[in-house]
């Protein structure tokens, strides 16, 4: 704790942030355990758990030298495992919902291109969309069920209970490096946060050209996903310092949409490779795939406009 009339040290600031996130984690865990059959409440609690776990893990990575490094490395590894496990079930459910909504929207659109040799595009899409939707629902519901089982198994494991115990300790006491934690925030935390900003800047600079006339390329998805990851780590570092992260949050939302659309496009392409599907079903899945690729490209442009705003004329 900072002494009265003294500026907070690096340990004070980092410790306060980590304790607040540990408390949020434990709150989400309690709500998740008490939610029972309330799917919406359980999902929201799991979301809170994931967010707190990511923030703690990101901070332990960025500000590792301010903590007891061996402890930080171990807890970060476990929190990354937990966050990833909890995310899978939500991701499959959200992907299915996104694809069903897109199919419904496209079926009602007069602007969908007609299949070869057929002038009635909307009609052809309507014929295939029901079967395409059923196919996607089977595939993604199966994946979601498996992810749900993995989540339940993880939450009941001794590994998870060890993580929860470690976070409970973190909520009251943060293991800090005796020397680095006593340093000034400007001398210790700010330069460490600047490292995450530099990494993010390099990753953004390495992205392929983005413009209204640039075609979408799935080969670049990995680079965009990496920018999303680095942006999230940088945002958490700025949060820990009490900075305004509204621009970073907006950019992150654009990259979330990109990730969701690109993975939905992949899911529709995977479904289209199912053996012996009807031509109308394949057509509907092809239209859906193109629609999600277009959404991913739009999200790339949205990120570009947020990150490189056009100066307003004076």
Automatic annotation (TrEMBL):
The superkingdom of the source organism is: Bacteria
What Pfam families does the entry give?
CHAD
Q: What is this protein called?
A: CHAD domain protein
Q: Which organism is it from?
A: Streptomyces lavendulae subsp. lavendulae
């Amino acid at each position: 704790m900072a002494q009265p009339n003294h500026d907070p040290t690096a340990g004070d600031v980092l410790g306060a942030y980590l304790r607040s996130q540990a408390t949020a984690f434990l709150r989400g865990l309690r709500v998740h355990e008490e939610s029972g059959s309330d799917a919406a409440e359980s999902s929201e609690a799991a979301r809170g758990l994931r967010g707190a776990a990511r923030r703690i893990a990101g901070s332990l990575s960025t500000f590792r030298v301010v903590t007891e490094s061996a402890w930080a490395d171990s807890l970060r590894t476990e929190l990354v495992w937990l966050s990833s496990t909890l995310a899978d079930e939500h991701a499959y459910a959200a992907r299915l919902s996104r694809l069903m909504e897109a199919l419904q929207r496209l079926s009602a659109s007069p602007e969908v291109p007609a299949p070869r040799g057929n002038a009635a595009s909307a009609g052809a899409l309507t014929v295939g969309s029901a079967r395409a939707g059923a196919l996607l629902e089977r595939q993604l519901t199966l994946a979601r069920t498996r992810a749900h089982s993995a989540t339940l198994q993880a939450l009941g494991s001794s590994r998870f209970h060890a993580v929860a115990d470690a976070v409970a300790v973190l909520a009251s006491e943060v293991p800090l490096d005796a020397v680095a934690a006593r340093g000034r925030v400007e001398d210790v935390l700010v330069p460490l946060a600047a490292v995450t900003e530099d990494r993010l800047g390099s990753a953004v600079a390495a992205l392929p050209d983005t413009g209204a006339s640039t075609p979408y390329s799935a080969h670049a998805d990995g680079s965009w996903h990496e920018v999303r990851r680095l942006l999230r780590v940088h945002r958490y570092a700025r949060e820990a310092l009490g900075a305004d992260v509204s621009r970073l949050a907006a950019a992150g939302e654009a990259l979330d949409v990109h990730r969701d659309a690109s993975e939905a496009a992949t899911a529709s392409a995977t479904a289209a490779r199912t053996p012996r599907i009807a031509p109308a079903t394949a057509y509907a899945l092809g239209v859906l795939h193109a629609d999600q690729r277009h959404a991913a490209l739009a999200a790339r442009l949205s990120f570009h406009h947020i990150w490189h705003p056009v100066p307003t004329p004076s």
